[in-house]
Amino acid sequence: MTIFIFGCKQSTTKNEIVKQKAEVKNDPLPSWNEGTTKKKIIDFVTQTTKEASTDFIPVADRITCFDNDGTLWSEQPIYFQFFFAIEQIKAMAPQHPVWKDNKPFKAILEGDMKIVIAGVEKALFKF
Fold first, then answer.
1. Range of 36's domain?
2. 44 occurs within a structural domain
């Protein structure tokens, strides 16, 4: 398995940092498309973080939840957690010699990702 990590830029100038901070100050979600969802999120945060608001939520009572929509949890090419599980199986394989002959472990240990992906859900729920 090979994982590539790339950077787009090696350095940021002081002027670029000042410009980025100004953009964030003017638009707290600069990478989002304009629309009702963005507006509702910004309005909600504004209403719940201003002490004078009737909707104010004290800092100690604030909870943030994120759903699994790929925003914070990469889904492509497969979930990072799946990569982690594969690496854990490989690390634990010496303590489980029968895995070398049993699917899906055999396919994982041999690096046959086509078989793993095709049958992983069904096979893993068996164990």
1. 14-61
2. yes
